[in-house]
Write the C-alpha coordinates for this entry.
Amino acid sequence: MLKITVSDLNLHYEDFHALKNISLNIEDKKVTALIGPSGCGKSTFLRTINRMNDLIDDVKIEGLVMLEDQDIYNKDVDVAALRRRVGMVFQKPNPFPKSIYENVAYGPRRYGIKAKNQLDEIVERSLKKAAIWEEVKDRLNKSALSLSGGQQQRLCIARALAMEPEVLLMDEPTASLDPIATGRIEELISQLKKDYAIIIVTHSMQQAARISDKTAFFLLGEIVETGKTKEVFTTPKDKRTEDYITGRFG
Amino acid sequence: MSKNFKEKFAFTILALITMCVIIPALFIFSYIIYNGIGTISLEFIFSAPRRGMTEGGIFPAIVGTMSLILGTIVFALPLGVGTAIYLVEYAKKNLLTKLISLAILNLAGVPSVVYGLFGLGLFVLLLGFGSSILSGALTLSCLILPIIIKSSEAAIKSVPNIYREASLALGATKWQTIYKVVLPTAMPGIITGAILGIGRAAGETAAILLTVAAFFLPRLPNSIMDQVMVLSYHLYIISSQVPGMPDAIKNGTALVLLGVVGIFFFVATVVRIRYKLANRE
Ligand SMILES: Nc1ncnc2c1ncn2[C@@H]1O[C@H](COP(=O)(O)OP(=O)(O)OP(=O)(O)O)[C@@H](O)[C@H]1O
Ligand SMILES: [Mg+2]
Protein backbone atom coordinates (compact mmCIF):
# COMPACT_ATOMS: atom_id res chain seq x y z
CA MET A 1 0.00 0.00 0.00
CA LEU A 2 1.27 3.48 -0.80
CA LYS A 3 1.53 5.83 2.14
CA ILE A 4 3.16 8.86 0.56
CA THR A 5 3.25 9.89 -3.07
CA VAL A 6 5.59 12.65 -4.12
CA SER A 7 5.35 13.95 -7.66
CA ASP A 8 7.40 16.60 -9.42
CA LEU A 9 8.59 18.18 -6.22
CA ASN A 10 10.83 21.22 -6.64
CA LEU A 11 12.29 23.22 -3.78
CA HIS A 12 14.26 26.45 -3.89
CA TYR A 13 16.15 28.08 -1.03
CA GLU A 14 16.06 31.67 -2.26
CA ASP A 15 17.74 31.13 -5.66
CA PHE A 16 19.31 27.74 -4.92
CA HIS A 17 17.46 24.86 -6.56
CA ALA A 18 17.81 22.21 -3.83
CA LEU A 19 15.29 19.57 -5.00
CA LYS A 20 14.71 18.96 -8.70
CA ASN A 21 11.65 17.12 -10.03
CA ILE A 22 11.53 14.59 -7.25
CA SER A 23 8.99 11.80 -7.66
CA LEU A 24 8.95 9.00 -5.13
CA ASN A 25 6.46 6.55 -3.69
CA ILE A 26 6.75 5.56 -0.05
CA GLU A 27 5.13 2.29 0.93
CA ASP A 28 3.42 1.63 4.21
CA LYS A 29 5.06 -0.78 6.67
CA LYS A 30 8.32 -0.67 4.76
CA VAL A 31 11.64 1.06 5.38
CA THR A 32 12.78 3.42 2.65
CA ALA A 33 16.41 4.51 2.78
CA LEU A 34 17.63 7.77 1.30
CA ILE A 35 21.30 7.69 0.40
CA GLY A 36 23.62 10.08 -1.38
CA PRO A 37 26.60 12.36 -0.84
CA SER A 38 26.54 15.25 1.59
CA GLY A 39 24.55 18.28 0.45
CA CYS A 40 22.48 16.43 -2.14
CA GLY A 41 19.16 17.28 -0.51
CA LYS A 42 18.24 14.25 1.58
CA SER A 43 17.42 16.22 4.71
CA THR A 44 15.66 18.85 2.67
CA PHE A 45 13.47 16.18 1.11
CA LEU A 46 12.74 14.58 4.48
CA ARG A 47 11.71 17.93 5.90
CA THR A 48 9.23 18.58 3.10
CA ILE A 49 7.21 15.57 4.26
CA ASN A 50 6.38 17.05 7.68
CA ARG A 51 6.62 20.62 6.42
CA MET A 52 9.57 21.54 8.66
CA ASN A 53 10.89 23.62 5.76
CA ASP A 54 8.03 26.03 6.43
CA LEU A 55 10.15 27.37 9.29
CA ILE A 56 12.82 28.67 6.93
CA ASP A 57 12.29 32.04 5.30
CA ASP A 58 12.36 32.29 1.53
CA VAL A 59 11.69 28.66 0.69
CA LYS A 60 9.64 27.98 -2.42
CA ILE A 61 8.05 24.57 -2.81
CA GLU A 62 6.24 23.32 -5.92
CA GLY A 63 4.81 19.95 -6.72
CA LEU A 64 2.56 17.50 -5.00
CA VAL A 65 3.10 15.63 -1.74
CA MET A 66 0.22 13.34 -0.86
CA LEU A 67 -0.13 11.62 2.50
CA GLU A 68 -2.65 8.94 1.58
CA ASP A 69 -5.33 11.07 -0.06
CA GLN A 70 -4.38 14.40 1.50
CA ASP A 71 -2.37 17.05 -0.32
CA ILE A 72 -0.19 18.19 2.58
CA TYR A 73 0.65 21.56 0.99
CA ASN A 74 -2.99 22.44 0.58
CA LYS A 75 -3.88 25.76 2.19
CA ASP A 76 -6.43 24.15 4.53
CA VAL A 77 -4.00 21.68 6.05
CA ASP A 78 -3.47 21.98 9.80
CA VAL A 79 0.33 21.72 9.94
CA ALA A 80 0.41 20.76 13.62
CA ALA A 81 -2.03 17.92 12.93
CA LEU A 82 0.07 16.82 9.96
CA ARG A 83 3.17 16.65 12.14
CA ARG A 84 1.34 14.41 14.56
CA ARG A 85 0.80 11.96 11.72
CA VAL A 86 4.39 12.28 10.51
CA GLY A 87 6.87 11.94 13.35
CA MET A 88 10.52 12.93 13.06
CA VAL A 89 13.77 11.84 14.69
CA PHE A 90 16.71 14.16 14.19
CA GLN A 91 20.34 13.48 13.47
CA LYS A 92 21.49 14.77 16.84
CA PRO A 93 19.53 13.50 19.83
CA ASN A 94 17.57 16.53 21.02
CA PRO A 95 15.61 15.71 24.16
CA PHE A 96 14.13 18.70 25.97
CA PRO A 97 15.85 19.78 29.20
CA LYS A 98 13.00 18.16 31.09
CA SER A 99 12.47 14.82 32.78
CA ILE A 100 12.35 11.58 30.79
CA TYR A 101 8.65 11.34 31.54
CA GLU A 102 7.92 14.90 30.45
CA ASN A 103 9.81 14.38 27.21
CA VAL A 104 7.60 11.50 26.19
CA ALA A 105 4.42 13.10 27.51
CA TYR A 106 5.17 16.37 25.71
CA GLY A 107 3.38 15.60 22.45
CA PRO A 108 0.24 14.00 23.91
CA ARG A 109 -0.07 16.83 26.44
CA ARG A 110 0.02 19.41 23.64
CA TYR A 111 -3.01 17.95 22.00
CA GLY A 112 -4.97 17.83 25.16
CA ILE A 113 -4.39 14.57 27.01
CA LYS A 114 -4.35 15.51 30.67
CA ALA A 115 -5.38 12.44 32.65
CA LYS A 116 -2.40 11.15 34.60
CA ASN A 117 -3.20 7.47 34.13
CA GLN A 118 -3.63 7.92 30.40
CA LEU A 119 -0.28 9.75 30.13
CA ASP A 120 1.41 7.12 32.33
CA GLU A 121 0.19 4.46 29.98
CA ILE A 122 1.35 6.32 26.84
CA VAL A 123 4.78 6.96 28.36
CA GLU A 124 5.26 3.33 29.32
CA ARG A 125 4.02 1.99 25.98
CA SER A 126 6.20 4.40 23.96
CA LEU A 127 9.32 3.74 26.00
CA LYS A 128 8.74 -0.01 25.63
CA LYS A 129 8.33 0.32 21.87
CA ALA A 130 11.56 2.27 21.69
CA ALA A 131 13.32 -0.47 23.67
CA ILE A 132 14.46 1.79 26.46
CA TRP A 133 11.85 1.12 29.14
CA GLU A 134 13.95 -1.32 31.12
CA GLU A 135 16.81 1.16 31.34
CA VAL A 136 14.77 4.15 32.50
CA LYS A 137 11.71 2.82 34.28
CA ASP A 138 13.17 3.59 37.72
CA ARG A 139 14.28 7.10 36.84
CA LEU A 140 11.42 8.58 34.83
CA ASN A 141 11.65 11.83 36.76
CA LYS A 142 15.37 12.26 36.16
CA SER A 143 16.61 14.67 33.52
CA ALA A 144 16.66 13.35 29.98
CA LEU A 145 20.03 15.03 29.65
CA SER A 146 21.48 12.56 32.16
CA LEU A 147 21.07 9.74 29.61
CA SER A 148 23.81 8.55 27.26
CA GLY A 149 23.69 9.61 23.60
CA GLY A 150 22.24 6.29 22.46
CA GLN A 151 19.65 6.32 25.22
CA GLN A 152 18.77 9.92 24.36
CA GLN A 153 18.19 8.95 20.74
CA ARG A 154 15.91 6.08 21.74
CA LEU A 155 14.11 8.48 24.05
CA CYS A 156 13.59 10.81 21.08
CA ILE A 157 12.18 7.87 19.14
CA ALA A 158 9.86 7.10 22.05
CA ARG A 159 8.84 10.74 22.13
CA ALA A 160 7.92 10.59 18.45
CA LEU A 161 6.08 7.28 18.89
CA ALA A 162 4.01 8.72 21.73
CA MET A 163 2.17 10.71 19.08
CA GLU A 164 1.14 7.45 17.43
CA PRO A 165 2.24 8.75 14.05
CA GLU A 166 1.70 6.88 10.80
CA VAL A 167 5.02 7.81 9.27
CA LEU A 168 8.42 8.05 10.95
CA LEU A 169 11.12 10.25 9.40
CA MET A 170 14.64 9.56 10.65
CA ASP A 171 17.50 11.81 9.61
CA GLU A 172 20.72 9.90 10.22
CA PRO A 173 19.45 8.68 13.59
CA THR A 174 22.61 6.72 14.35
CA ALA A 175 25.16 9.25 13.10
CA SER A 176 26.36 10.16 16.58
CA LEU A 177 26.16 6.70 18.10
CA ASP A 178 28.57 3.84 18.77
CA PRO A 179 28.12 0.45 17.05
CA ILE A 180 26.24 -1.09 19.96
CA ALA A 181 23.71 1.74 20.22
CA THR A 182 23.46 1.74 16.42
CA GLY A 183 22.69 -1.96 16.46
CA ARG A 184 19.93 -1.47 18.98
CA ILE A 185 18.35 1.27 16.92
CA GLU A 186 18.53 -0.76 13.73
CA GLU A 187 16.87 -3.65 15.54
CA LEU A 188 14.26 -1.22 16.73
CA ILE A 189 13.59 0.07 13.22
CA SER A 190 13.02 -3.49 12.01
CA GLN A 191 10.47 -3.90 14.80
CA LEU A 192 8.79 -0.57 14.16
CA LYS A 193 8.24 -1.11 10.45
CA LYS A 194 5.46 -3.54 11.33
CA ASP A 195 3.38 -0.51 12.27
CA TYR A 196 4.81 2.47 10.42
CA ALA A 197 6.07 3.72 7.11
CA ILE A 198 9.69 4.61 7.86
CA ILE A 199 11.98 6.85 5.85
CA ILE A 200 15.58 6.91 6.97
CA VAL A 201 18.48 9.02 5.75
CA THR A 202 21.81 7.31 6.17
CA HIS A 203 25.41 7.64 5.10
CA SER A 204 26.12 4.02 5.87
CA MET A 205 25.66 1.74 2.87
CA GLN A 206 25.73 -1.27 5.17
CA GLN A 207 22.97 0.21 7.26
CA ALA A 208 20.81 0.92 4.21
CA ALA A 209 21.41 -2.61 2.97
CA ARG A 210 20.66 -4.14 6.38
CA ILE A 211 17.45 -2.44 7.30
CA SER A 212 15.72 -0.96 4.26
CA ASP A 213 13.30 -2.48 1.77
CA LYS A 214 13.57 0.31 -0.75
CA THR A 215 16.40 2.70 -1.50
CA ALA A 216 16.48 6.04 -3.27
CA PHE A 217 19.80 7.48 -4.39
CA PHE A 218 20.00 11.28 -4.36
CA LEU A 219 22.57 13.29 -6.26
CA LEU A 220 22.71 17.08 -6.54
CA GLY A 221 19.05 17.51 -5.74
CA GLU A 222 17.80 14.77 -8.05
CA ILE A 223 16.82 11.16 -7.55
CA VAL A 224 19.14 9.16 -9.77
CA GLU A 225 17.78 5.76 -8.99
CA THR A 226 15.18 4.14 -6.82
CA GLY A 227 14.13 0.56 -6.37
CA LYS A 228 14.20 -2.47 -4.12
CA THR A 229 17.24 -2.21 -1.87
CA LYS A 230 18.55 -5.61 -2.98
CA GLU A 231 18.42 -4.60 -6.62
CA VAL A 232 19.90 -1.14 -6.11
CA PHE A 233 22.80 -2.63 -4.22
CA THR A 234 23.44 -5.72 -6.37
CA THR A 235 22.46 -4.60 -9.85
CA PRO A 236 22.35 -0.80 -9.98
CA LYS A 237 21.01 0.51 -13.28
CA ASP A 238 22.88 3.79 -13.21
CA LYS A 239 26.65 4.05 -13.35
CA ARG A 240 26.62 6.88 -10.78
CA THR A 241 24.73 4.72 -8.29
CA GLU A 242 27.23 1.95 -8.72
CA ASP A 243 30.14 4.33 -8.19
CA TYR A 244 28.56 5.73 -5.06
CA ILE A 245 27.70 2.46 -3.36
CA THR A 246 31.02 0.91 -4.18
CA GLY A 247 32.78 3.94 -2.74
CA ARG A 248 34.34 4.98 -6.02
CA PHE A 249 32.58 8.28 -5.96
CA GLY A 250 34.28 11.61 -6.17
CA MET B 1 58.02 33.09 27.81
CA SER B 2 56.86 29.57 28.47
CA LYS B 3 53.24 28.68 27.93
CA ASN B 4 52.92 27.88 31.59
CA PHE B 5 54.19 31.28 32.59
CA LYS B 6 51.81 33.05 30.20
CA GLU B 7 48.97 31.06 31.66
CA LYS B 8 49.92 32.08 35.20
CA PHE B 9 50.46 35.67 34.15
CA ALA B 10 47.04 35.94 32.54
CA PHE B 11 45.45 34.31 35.54
CA THR B 12 47.13 36.74 37.94
CA ILE B 13 46.09 39.78 35.92
CA LEU B 14 42.49 38.60 35.73
CA ALA B 15 42.45 37.84 39.43
CA LEU B 16 43.78 41.34 40.17
CA ILE B 17 41.14 42.95 37.98
CA THR B 18 38.44 40.93 39.69
CA MET B 19 39.78 42.12 43.05
CA CYS B 20 39.64 45.72 41.88
CA VAL B 21 35.93 45.25 41.25
CA ILE B 22 35.09 43.23 44.30
CA ILE B 23 37.03 45.13 46.95
CA PRO B 24 35.32 48.52 46.53
CA ALA B 25 31.93 46.78 46.49
CA LEU B 26 32.83 44.88 49.65
CA PHE B 27 34.08 48.07 51.22
CA ILE B 28 30.83 49.92 50.47
CA PHE B 29 28.77 47.03 51.81
CA SER B 30 30.71 46.76 55.03
CA TYR B 31 30.76 50.51 55.48
CA ILE B 32 26.98 50.71 55.19
CA ILE B 33 26.40 47.69 57.38
CA TYR B 34 28.93 48.77 60.02
CA ASN B 35 27.52 52.29 60.31
CA GLY B 36 23.87 51.47 59.83
CA ILE B 37 23.38 48.37 61.93
CA GLY B 38 23.26 50.33 65.19
CA THR B 39 20.25 52.31 64.01
CA ILE B 40 18.18 49.31 62.98
CA SER B 41 15.45 48.55 65.44
CA LEU B 42 11.84 47.48 65.24
CA GLU B 43 10.88 51.06 65.88
CA PHE B 44 13.10 52.37 63.09
CA ILE B 45 11.64 49.92 60.61
CA PHE B 46 8.01 49.90 61.67
CA SER B 47 7.20 53.49 62.60
CA ALA B 48 6.74 56.73 60.74
CA PRO B 49 9.24 59.61 60.86
CA ARG B 50 8.67 62.33 63.45
CA ARG B 51 9.98 65.79 64.21
CA GLY B 52 10.95 66.78 60.69
CA MET B 53 12.29 63.26 60.09
CA THR B 54 15.01 63.59 62.70
CA GLU B 55 13.32 60.99 64.89
CA GLY B 56 11.14 57.93 64.50
CA GLY B 57 11.39 55.42 61.68
CA ILE B 58 11.05 55.08 57.96
CA PHE B 59 8.20 52.60 57.58
CA PRO B 60 6.22 54.67 55.00
CA ALA B 61 9.29 54.89 52.79
CA ILE B 62 9.91 51.14 53.04
CA VAL B 63 6.32 50.43 52.03
CA GLY B 64 6.64 52.99 49.25
CA THR B 65 9.78 51.45 47.80
CA MET B 66 8.41 47.94 48.03
CA SER B 67 5.15 48.81 46.32
CA LEU B 68 7.03 50.69 43.62
CA ILE B 69 9.33 47.73 42.94
CA LEU B 70 6.41 45.32 42.87
CA GLY B 71 4.42 47.58 40.58
CA THR B 72 7.40 48.02 38.31
CA ILE B 73 7.92 44.26 37.99
CA VAL B 74 4.23 43.72 37.30
CA PHE B 75 4.34 46.13 34.36
CA ALA B 76 7.86 45.76 33.05
CA LEU B 77 8.34 42.00 33.15
CA PRO B 78 5.39 40.90 30.99
CA LEU B 79 5.85 43.81 28.62
CA GLY B 80 9.60 43.32 28.34
CA VAL B 81 9.47 39.55 27.95
CA GLY B 82 6.60 39.88 25.48
CA THR B 83 8.60 42.33 23.38
CA ALA B 84 11.62 40.06 23.46
CA ILE B 85 9.51 37.09 22.38
CA TYR B 86 8.12 39.11 19.51
CA LEU B 87 11.54 40.34 18.40
CA VAL B 88 13.19 36.94 18.51
CA GLU B 89 10.42 34.55 17.52
CA TYR B 90 8.04 36.48 15.30
CA ALA B 91 9.58 39.61 13.79
CA LYS B 92 11.12 39.24 10.35
CA LYS B 93 14.86 39.75 10.46
CA ASN B 94 14.80 42.95 8.43
CA LEU B 95 16.03 46.51 8.72
CA LEU B 96 13.02 47.68 10.69
CA THR B 97 13.57 45.02 13.35
CA LYS B 98 17.23 45.96 13.55
CA LEU B 99 16.32 49.62 13.99
CA ILE B 100 13.85 48.78 16.74
CA SER B 101 16.50 46.70 18.48
CA LEU B 102 18.96 49.56 18.22
CA ALA B 103 16.41 52.07 19.49
CA ILE B 104 15.76 49.91 22.55
CA LEU B 105 19.48 49.72 23.23
CA ASN B 106 19.69 53.51 23.01
CA LEU B 107 16.80 53.91 25.44
CA ALA B 108 18.96 52.21 28.05
CA GLY B 109 21.32 55.16 27.85
CA VAL B 110 18.75 57.93 28.30
CA PRO B 111 19.28 59.82 31.59
CA SER B 112 16.68 58.90 34.17
CA VAL B 113 15.54 62.47 34.72
CA VAL B 114 14.30 62.41 31.13
CA TYR B 115 12.16 59.39 32.03
CA GLY B 116 10.94 61.42 35.01
CA LEU B 117 9.82 64.26 32.77
CA PHE B 118 8.26 61.79 30.34
CA GLY B 119 6.36 60.14 33.19
CA LEU B 120 5.24 63.51 34.48
CA GLY B 121 3.93 64.49 31.09
CA LEU B 122 2.28 61.20 30.17
CA PHE B 123 1.15 59.41 33.32
CA VAL B 124 0.80 62.21 35.87
CA LEU B 125 -0.71 64.92 33.68
CA LEU B 126 -2.03 63.58 30.38
CA LEU B 127 -3.49 60.31 31.66
CA GLY B 128 -4.41 61.98 34.95
CA PHE B 129 -2.92 59.37 37.30
CA GLY B 130 -1.50 62.25 39.37
CA SER B 131 1.55 61.87 41.53
CA SER B 132 0.96 58.27 42.56
CA ILE B 133 2.42 54.79 42.94
CA LEU B 134 0.83 53.95 39.59
CA SER B 135 2.57 56.82 37.79
CA GLY B 136 5.87 56.04 39.50
CA ALA B 137 5.75 52.33 38.74
CA LEU B 138 4.86 53.00 35.11
CA THR B 139 7.72 55.49 34.81
CA LEU B 140 10.19 53.08 36.39
CA SER B 141 8.88 50.36 34.08
CA CYS B 142 9.79 52.48 31.07
CA LEU B 143 13.19 53.05 32.61
CA ILE B 144 14.03 49.38 33.12
CA LEU B 145 12.21 48.07 30.06
CA PRO B 146 15.33 48.22 27.85
CA ILE B 147 17.27 46.16 30.42
CA ILE B 148 14.52 43.55 30.64
CA ILE B 149 14.03 43.39 26.87
CA LYS B 150 17.72 43.08 26.08
CA SER B 151 18.45 40.40 28.65
CA SER B 152 15.30 38.44 27.77
CA GLU B 153 16.19 38.70 24.09
CA ALA B 154 19.63 37.29 24.81
CA ALA B 155 18.16 34.51 26.96
CA ILE B 156 15.56 33.54 24.36
CA LYS B 157 18.10 33.62 21.55
CA SER B 158 20.37 31.30 23.49
CA VAL B 159 17.73 28.55 23.58
CA PRO B 160 19.03 26.04 21.00
CA ASN B 161 16.98 25.82 17.84
CA ILE B 162 16.90 22.03 18.07
CA TYR B 163 14.45 22.37 20.98
CA ARG B 164 12.10 24.45 18.87
CA GLU B 165 12.34 22.00 15.99
CA ALA B 166 11.76 19.04 18.28
CA SER B 167 8.65 20.65 19.70
CA LEU B 168 7.20 21.70 16.35
CA ALA B 169 7.94 18.29 14.86
CA LEU B 170 5.82 16.79 17.64
CA GLY B 171 2.83 18.74 16.42
CA ALA B 172 3.03 21.57 18.95
CA THR B 173 1.98 25.00 17.73
CA LYS B 174 4.40 27.89 17.67
CA TRP B 175 2.91 29.44 20.79
CA GLN B 176 2.96 26.10 22.66
CA THR B 177 6.59 25.77 21.68
CA ILE B 178 7.41 29.20 23.04
CA TYR B 179 5.38 28.78 26.20
CA LYS B 180 6.35 25.22 27.07
CA VAL B 181 9.91 24.93 25.81
CA VAL B 182 11.52 28.26 24.97
CA LEU B 183 10.42 30.31 27.99
CA PRO B 184 11.16 27.72 30.70
CA THR B 185 14.62 27.20 29.19
CA ALA B 186 15.25 30.94 28.95
CA MET B 187 13.81 31.72 32.39
CA PRO B 188 17.07 31.84 34.40
CA GLY B 189 18.44 34.43 31.98
CA ILE B 190 15.22 36.40 32.00
CA ILE B 191 15.24 36.52 35.79
CA THR B 192 18.83 37.71 35.81
CA GLY B 193 17.66 40.66 33.71
CA ALA B 194 14.78 41.26 36.11
CA ILE B 195 17.24 41.34 39.00
CA LEU B 196 19.34 44.00 37.28
CA GLY B 197 16.17 45.96 36.56
CA ILE B 198 15.00 45.77 40.16
CA GLY B 199 18.34 47.07 41.38
CA ARG B 200 18.13 49.96 38.98
CA ALA B 201 14.53 50.80 39.89
CA ALA B 202 15.09 50.59 43.65
CA GLY B 203 17.92 53.08 43.65
CA GLU B 204 16.29 55.52 41.27
CA THR B 205 15.47 59.03 42.45
CA ALA B 206 15.25 61.35 39.45
CA ALA B 207 12.53 59.34 37.71
CA ILE B 208 10.29 59.13 40.76
CA LEU B 209 10.88 62.66 42.00
CA LEU B 210 8.31 64.06 39.59
CA THR B 211 5.93 61.13 39.48
CA VAL B 212 5.37 59.65 42.94
CA ALA B 213 7.82 60.56 45.69
CA ALA B 214 6.57 62.62 48.62
CA PHE B 215 8.97 64.79 50.59
CA PHE B 216 7.33 64.04 53.90
CA LEU B 217 4.18 61.93 54.22
CA PRO B 218 4.23 59.97 57.45
CA ARG B 219 1.34 57.62 56.66
CA LEU B 220 0.83 54.56 54.54
CA PRO B 221 -0.77 54.69 51.07
CA ASN B 222 -4.37 53.52 50.74
CA SER B 223 -4.23 52.65 47.08
CA ILE B 224 -1.96 52.77 44.07
CA MET B 225 -3.32 56.23 43.35
CA ASP B 226 -1.62 57.65 46.47
CA GLN B 227 1.68 59.41 46.76
CA VAL B 228 4.29 57.72 48.95
CA MET B 229 7.66 58.34 50.47
CA VAL B 230 10.42 56.34 48.81
CA LEU B 231 13.66 55.15 50.43
CA SER B 232 16.04 56.37 47.74
CA TYR B 233 14.50 59.84 47.62
CA HIS B 234 14.18 59.95 51.38
CA LEU B 235 17.86 59.16 51.68
CA TYR B 236 18.67 61.94 49.27
CA ILE B 237 16.57 64.44 51.23
CA ILE B 238 17.88 63.60 54.65
CA SER B 239 21.47 63.61 53.46
CA SER B 240 21.33 66.89 51.63
CA GLN B 241 18.19 68.90 52.33
CA VAL B 242 17.59 68.63 56.05
CA PRO B 243 20.08 70.44 58.29
CA GLY B 244 21.04 68.76 61.53
CA MET B 245 19.98 65.28 60.46
CA PRO B 246 21.61 62.67 62.72
CA ASP B 247 24.11 60.47 60.84
CA ALA B 248 22.60 57.39 62.44
CA ILE B 249 19.33 57.87 60.56
CA LYS B 250 21.09 58.39 57.24
CA ASN B 251 23.20 55.27 57.67
CA GLY B 252 20.24 53.25 58.88
CA THR B 253 18.16 54.32 55.89
CA ALA B 254 20.93 53.33 53.50
CA LEU B 255 21.17 49.93 55.13
CA VAL B 256 17.41 49.40 54.95
CA LEU B 257 17.39 50.30 51.25
CA LEU B 258 20.13 47.76 50.74
CA GLY B 259 18.10 45.22 52.70
CA VAL B 260 14.93 45.80 50.70
CA VAL B 261 16.78 45.32 47.42
CA GLY B 262 18.42 42.28 48.97
CA ILE B 263 15.04 40.74 49.76
CA PHE B 264 13.92 41.07 46.15
CA PHE B 265 17.24 39.68 44.93
CA PHE B 266 16.86 36.75 47.25
CA VAL B 267 13.37 35.91 46.01
CA ALA B 268 14.45 36.29 42.38
CA THR B 269 17.48 34.10 42.96
CA VAL B 270 15.39 31.38 44.56
CA VAL B 271 13.04 31.40 41.57
CA ARG B 272 16.02 31.36 39.23
CA ILE B 273 17.58 28.36 40.95
CA ARG B 274 14.27 26.51 40.87
CA TYR B 275 14.06 26.99 37.11
CA LYS B 276 17.66 25.95 36.66
CA LEU B 277 17.04 22.76 38.60
CA ALA B 278 13.77 22.13 36.78
CA ASN B 279 15.58 22.43 33.46
CA ARG B 280 18.17 19.97 34.56
CA GLU B 281 15.70 17.51 36.02
N1 LIG C 1 18.24 26.75 5.15
C1 LIG C 1 18.93 26.67 4.00
N2 LIG C 1 19.14 27.76 3.24
C2 LIG C 1 19.83 27.68 2.09
N3 LIG C 1 20.35 26.55 1.60
C3 LIG C 1 20.19 25.42 2.31
C4 LIG C 1 19.47 25.42 3.53
N4 LIG C 1 19.45 24.15 4.03
C5 LIG C 1 20.13 23.41 3.13
N5 LIG C 1 20.57 24.16 2.11
C6 LIG C 1 21.33 23.67 0.94
O1 LIG C 1 20.58 22.69 0.29
C7 LIG C 1 21.42 21.61 -0.12
C8 LIG C 1 20.89 20.31 0.43
O2 LIG C 1 21.03 20.32 1.83
P1 LIG C 1 20.59 19.10 2.74
O3 LIG C 1 20.77 19.48 4.14
O4 LIG C 1 19.25 18.65 2.33
O5 LIG C 1 21.67 18.00 2.31
P2 LIG C 1 21.84 16.51 2.85
O6 LIG C 1 21.72 15.62 1.68
O7 LIG C 1 20.96 16.24 3.99
O8 LIG C 1 23.35 16.54 3.31
P3 LIG C 1 24.03 15.78 4.56
O9 LIG C 1 24.22 14.40 4.14
O10 LIG C 1 25.34 16.49 4.72
O11 LIG C 1 23.14 15.95 5.74
C9 LIG C 1 22.83 21.95 0.36
O12 LIG C 1 23.55 22.43 -0.74
C10 LIG C 1 22.63 23.02 1.38
O13 LIG C 1 23.69 23.93 1.34
MG1 LIG D 1 21.24 15.97 6.12
Remarks:
- Residues 210 and 273 of chain B are 37 Å apart (CA to CA).
- The pocket of magnesium ion (ligand 2) is lined by residues A 42-43, 171 (CB under 6 Å).
